[in-house]
């Protein structure tokens, strides 16, 4: 993927558009990583049920904590998916798909071997 610095001699509007698209892709990547992490939420939530505990009180408190952690993780993902930025990106993608349905190549993890590493955002 080209960066903005590599195209410093290009049109400023093109550079801004490229930077915006790269930021959008990074946001979608972060959403994807959060959703992949969600797969392990239920197994982590029921882990205390499989462990032995010295008393029913510790059993209940550890299970209660794991349920609260799972609830927080789900709430965080829900907030990220329903944020204005996410809605805008998904609406833009749907509009693009409707306008040009052919020629959209599906993304594969092999296309970018470092896809699980979040990019440092510029402030």
Q: What would you note in describing this structure?
A:
- Helices cover 63% and strands 0% of the residues.
- It is built from four helices and no strands.
- It is elongated, with a radius of gyration of 21 Å.
- The N terminus is likely disordered.
List keywords for this structure.
about 120 residues; elongated; disordered N terminus; mainly alpha
| Main sheet properties | none
* Count of distinct structural domains: 1
Number of strands: 0
User: Would you list the SSEs in sequence order as H and E?
Assistant: HHHH
Q: Which bin fits the share of residues in helices?
A: 55-70%
Poorly predicted regions: 1-7
The total of helices stands at 4
Strand content: under 5%
- Overall mean pLDDT: 85
Structural class: mainly alpha
Shape: elongated
Question: What integer value in Å does the Rg equal?
Answer: 21 Å
Region (Disordered): 1-20, 92-123
Give the arrangement of secondary structure elements.
Elements: H1 12-37, H2 41-50, H3 56-81, H4 84-99
Helix pairs in contact: 2-3
How would you briefly describe this protein structure?
The chain is mainly α and 123 residues long. The chain contains 4 helices and no strands.
